[in-house]
Structures are given as C-alpha cells and as structure tokens.
Automatic annotation (TrEMBL):
It comes from Winogradskyella aurantia. Residues 157-219 form the DUF3298 domain. Residues 30-124 form the Deacetylase PdaC domain. Pfam families: DUF3298, PdaC. InterPro entries: DUF3298 (IPR021729), PdaC (IPR025303), PdaC/RsiV-like_sf (IPR037126). This is Deacetylase PdaC domain-containing protein. Coiled coil: none annotated. It comes from the Bacteria.
C-alpha cells in the first residue's frame, strides 16, 4: 500500500537489495535492503538498518558496519576450531535477511530476520520489525505511530484470541505469556494487509511453539494510528 502523492515535493527513498558474498570459514549469508543514494535521508535509513542488524546479532554495539559483525562472528568460529580441533559440532551459521514490508510518505517498516547457530541443540532465530520515519530516517517507537496504547492493546488481544481459534493446535491463552496477562509484543509494524504484531521465540511461549504472528486490518486499527 503506497500512499505517495504526485503533487508532493517530497521524494521517498528507493531501495535496492544488497548481497554479501565473501569466503568465510563459517556459513554466513547476508541479503538486506539498502536505500539508494547518498543524501541525508538515505544515509540515516541505512545507518539505522545496519545498527539494528548489529544489535540483533548481539555483537559489540561499537561496530558501525555489517562487515565488522560478520568478520567478528567468523573469527569467533575460527578461534573455536583452533581451541577445540576435535569438536564434532557442525559449521557455525549466521543468516541475515531483510524485507521492506511497507512504505508510505510517513513510515517505512523493515523486517530483519536473524538466524544464528553456534553449536548446541539448535540455532536461534528472531525477527525485528524496524519502523522508520520516511521523511528523515529516524527510528520510530510504538508510541510514535500508535495513539492510546491501552485501547490498542485491548483490540490486539481480540485478534490474538481470534488467531488462536483459527489454528489447529487447540491452544488457549493459558498456553502463552508464562502465566502473565496479555501484553503487546516487542515487534509491531506495518504490512500490506494491516498492522503486524509478532512475538519472537521464547517471548510468550516455548521454543516448540515458534513465532506467534497475527495482523489487525487497517480499517479496524486506523482509529489508533498516528501514521498512514
């Protein structure tokens, strides 16, 4: 749903897909969205996307570019192999992929998917919905685009329960939130069909239940939205 006005002088950011192909020892793949150009808007967007990826990978926040975290992850794997040459662990993995789920004159939502395997029973994966001001590239908090958070939470609970009813696992609210009341997820963003609400693995349920994701149609959520 693109809401650009032909009469507006504002020039929205345009994006390209960047793929990093390097000869790492670990299994590392990176495909992400990058704003084209070198203007202030593009620089701000790209900086915030890269910083979000760095944060989600969990490396030192002093890193300023994606290649730094990839080299750091790879070096840790190389050091591990040197320290434990007889270890039978599979090759470490780091996969980063982004998707622009929405763009208007007000807001851009980028979904950042991270998968990491550093040995053990299974890897760890998570998704972050990064919301950016489409005019200056600044990161938006939920309060910046949602008004009346309490009312929105009540609406979200209704759609959460509806989502459970549509599943075949016969799960109930008691299977989520670890005995605590319903609450909004850390990740809320805009998508083609409505407002996306996404709970990461372990956020409200066990690893076996995976992600919990549902959407609220725009016509139901619009009274709570500050941005289109």
């Amino acid at each position: 749903m693109l809401l650009f006005s032909c009469s507006s002088e504002f020039k929205p950011a345009t994006f390209e897909t960047v793929e990093i192909n390097e000869n790492f020892d670990a299994d590392i793949t990176v495909i992400y969205e990058r704003a084209k150009g070198n203007d202030d808007l593009s620089q701000a967007i790209n900086k915030n996307i890269e910083q979000a990826m760095i944060y989600e990978v969990g490396r030192d926040s002093t890193y300023t570019d994606v290649m730094s975290i990839l080299n750091s992850f790879n070096q840790e794997y190389v050091d591990f192999k040197k320290d434990f040459p007889d270890a039978s662990e599979p090759k470490w993995e780091l996969q980063i992929e982004t998707e622009k789920t929405y763009q208007s004159e007000d807001i851009i939502t980028i979904a950042i998917s991270i998968y990491q395997f550093e040995g053990g029973a299974h890897g760890n994966d998570q998704i972050r919905l990064l919301n950016l001001n489409a005019k200056n590239g600044a990161i938006l908090r939920h309060e910046d685009f949602i008004g009346n958070i309490e009312g929105f939470e009540t609406l979200a609970k209704t759609y959460f329960l509806e989502n459970l009813e549509n599943q075949k696992e016969n799960l109930t609210m008691e299977d989520y939130f670890f005995g605590k009341p319903f609450h909004l997820p850390e990740n809320i963003g805009y998508g083609d069909e409505g407002i996306i609400l996404l709970y990461n693995v372990y956020e409200v349920a066990s690893y076996a239940q995976g992600y919990t994701e549902f959407a609220i149609p725009y016509d139901k959520a619009e009274s709570f939205l500050k941005m289109n």
